[in-house]
């Protein structure tokens, strides 16, 4: 797994490439937690180069989503984990697990970054 | 296909994944089916490593076999940890419930069992055998 980080004014974009499995999920968690530690809670995960994700990775996403959403500026504005460019094979896993309704999904990273 | 023997260690997940993808390719599975099979094997392999070995301080190998028959592709994982039948794990609670109330501990097994056409488990000769079967598409 490889993660590229780009910082924008309001939003941080993590582009994930490769595999997120039981061996690598902890690295993803550390990258997201590091953003939280800096007070950055508006995060887009770019997934167009994500080849594979198994349940330890899904768990990282769920926990991150919860923490991000706990951060609020107003009732209408706050933190979130939003997902861009999910490949169809992985979208199928999201559908199977009910994740599709839990996350805001976007076709591409520009749309997702702009959504905040 | 050749038999793959790897240590029961998370570093082996990649090699097992590649082996399954190669088997799926040889069997002519489409990409979605190949992905589901890989995910299923990976989830069960992760449990074998974490719960069968690391948590109880056991070291050992996992043997991975692939058999391509006329209409099916079968992948078998064999290990010598204590007997554990993944089917005895309860399914995750209602997936529509709010996340904060949900126990997602069984998510991996759920994905494994839902993703393949047939799953079987047996304990023979002091060995766990997790068996994954996918139907092969009709060849043109």
TrEMBL record, chain A:
<dbReference type="Pfam" id="PF01740">
    <property type="entry name" value="STAS"/>
</dbReference>
<dbReference type="InterPro" id="IPR003658">
    <property type="entry name" value="Anti-sigma_ant"/>
</dbReference>
<feature type="domain" description="STAS">
    <location>
        <begin position="1"/>
        <end position="116"/>
    </location>
</feature>
<dbReference type="InterPro" id="IPR002645">
    <property type="entry name" value="STAS_dom"/>
</dbReference>
<comment type="similarity">
    <text>Belongs to the anti-sigma-factor antagonist family.</text>
</comment>
<protein>
    <recommendedName>
        <fullName>Anti-sigma factor antagonist</fullName>
    </recommendedName>
</protein>
<dbReference type="GO" id="GO:0043856">
    <property type="term" value="F:anti-sigma factor antagonist activity"/>
</dbReference>
<dbReference type="InterPro" id="IPR036513">
    <property type="entry name" value="STAS_dom_sf"/>
</dbReference>
TrEMBL record, chain B:
<keyword id="KW-0723">Serine/threonine-protein kinase</keyword>
<dbReference type="InterPro" id="IPR003594">
    <property type="entry name" value="HATPase_dom"/>
</dbReference>
<dbReference type="GO" id="GO:0004674">
    <property type="term" value="F:protein serine/threonine kinase activity"/>
</dbReference>
<dbReference type="InterPro" id="IPR036890">
    <property type="entry name" value="HATPase_C_sf"/>
</dbReference>
<protein>
    <submittedName>
        <fullName>Anti-sigma regulatory factor</fullName>
    </submittedName>
</protein>
<feature type="domain" description="Histidine kinase/HSP90-like ATPase">
    <location>
        <begin position="6"/>
        <end position="127"/>
    </location>
</feature>
<keyword id="KW-0808">Transferase</keyword>
<keyword id="KW-0418">Kinase</keyword>
<dbReference type="InterPro" id="IPR050267">
    <property type="entry name" value="Anti-sigma-factor_SerPK"/>
</dbReference>
<dbReference type="Pfam" id="PF13581">
    <property type="entry name" value="HATPase_c_2"/>
</dbReference>
